[in-house]
Amino acid sequence: MNATSTPRLILALTLTGTLGACSVLEEGKVDYKSAKPASSLEVPPDLTQLTKDSRYVLQSTSATASGFMSAAAQVKDAGTAANSMGDVSMQRNGQQRYLVVQRPADKLWEPLRKFWSDNGFVLTTDAPDIGIMETDWAENRAKLPQDFIRKTLGKVLDSLYSTGERDRFRTRVERTAKGVEIYVTHRRMVEEYADQQKERTIWMPGANDPELEIEFLRRLMVQLGATPEQAKAASTAGQAATAPASAQVSVQQGQPGIVLTDDLERTWRRVGVALDRTGFTVEDRDRQKGIYFVRYVSGTGQEQPGFFARMFGSKKSEGPVLNKYRIAVSAQGTGSLVQVLNEQGQPESADNATKILKLLAPEIR
Predict the structure, then answer these.
(1) Is the pLDDT of residue 250 over 50?
(2) Percent of the chain with pLDDT over 70
(3) How far is the C-alpha of 266 from the C-alpha of 79, rounded, in Å?
(4) Cα angle value 351/356/359 (rounded, 5°)
(5) 19-42: average pLDDT
(6) How many other β-carbons are positioned within 10 Å of the β-carbon of residue 35?
(7) Global pTM exceeds 0.85
(8) Strand order across the 249-252 sheet
(9) Is 131 left (phi over 0), alpha (psi -120 to 50) or beta?
(10) Mean pLDDT (the chain, rounded)
């Protein structure tokens, strides 16, 4: 070891010890730094780039992905609370928040790209034809300790610090008769020890943070023209609203399903956000018919199978398998019914349908 490397080693050890002593997040501070091109983050194999499939180009006037830029759905809005700022409003659907913007959809995509770039993210999915944008996995540097050494050295040795968490955000854009709806959903991966000896770590799915979703919606309102004061007022309005009843999986009409007391429009929104939060890739959607076309990939042969692969029992030795389903939302009495169909539109096997619905149920809130 030469004379130059010794002080660096001492400093690195000092920083490591200090990191364990202080890890408090400064309240309200969000400061993301893209994790790309770090390749050590093991992510579920279903999180792959969208592939175009002409079978899902539906010929209708509803808000399908293929008609995203040209056709507006004739839908009825009900049961939402709004806070308007010019042509931008923040709506509340139960505990969910989303924006409604009175602008052409094709005029919003570039501002959305700039928004995520300005906030420290790289986009891994950028698909205006289906209205989906997704960031890479990024670290919230605001969660790093602000100790004396780090404050003194600034970003010189920033790479020595890690929160052990990575976040990803998905933006979904839909046209309706009321305007363009924008949803932001959050996913988290957490680094955990893979064995009792604590010699190796793996990345596992963590809990999503609805407060982060609201924070980025607030920032997006400012990007789209609202003042910071207006956006803050809109994001905090109605926070004491009663949470919707927890979704439960039961047998309906001989098939597994989730029955909700909400009407079709509110259920459509809740299911869409649940799909985004759980990481399903939405390839297409038909709002008028109440169908989401989704997929995931299992069995990639990685050392640690992906999240969906583990859930559905895929083994390490299996090759990649593309699984496609339809999540159907339909009227049931005064409420709604959510069920899982296969790629051909027929009821999915009870076992697989139950697993998918149980994955979605906690996020339908």
Answers:
(1) yes
(2) 63
(3) 7
(4) 125
(5) 50
(6) 21
(7) no
(8) 249-252, 255-260, 335-342, 321-332, 291-298, 281-286
(9) left
(10) 74
Q: How far is CA 262 from CA 32, 74, 190, 358, in A?
A: 36, 19, 33, 19
Say which amino acid occupies 192: E
Q: Please check the confidence at residue 144 and state whether its pLDDT lies above 90.
A: no
As a whole number of angstroms, the distance between CA 297 and CA 47 comes to 8
User: What is the amino acid identity at position 279?
Assistant: G
Q: What are the pLDDT digits (tens) for 81-133?
A: 455 567 999 998 877 899 999 999 889 999 999 999 999 999 999 999 889 99
Q: Could you tell me the sign of the dihedral formed by the alpha carbons of 125, 364, 310, 255, in that order?
A: negative
How far does the chain reach from its first CA to its final CA, in angstroms?
A: 57
Residues with Cβ < 8 Å from 23, sequence gap 6 or more? 143, 144, 145, 163
**Looking at the predicted structure, is the pLDDT value of residue 61 above 80?**
no
How would you class 156 by CB atoms within 10 Å of its CB: exposed for 0-12, middle for 13-18, buried for 19 or more? exposed
Cα gap 86→106, rounded to integer Å? 19
Kindly state the tokens that stand for 171. 């933006």
Contacts for 19 with CB less than 8 Å, ≥ 6 apart = 144, 145, 147, 161
Cis (ω within 30 of 0) for the bond into 37? yes
Is-contact 180 75, C-beta < 8 A? no
DSSP-H helix ranges across the chain: 5-21, 109-118, 148-153, 210-223, 228-236, 264-278, 307-311, 350-360
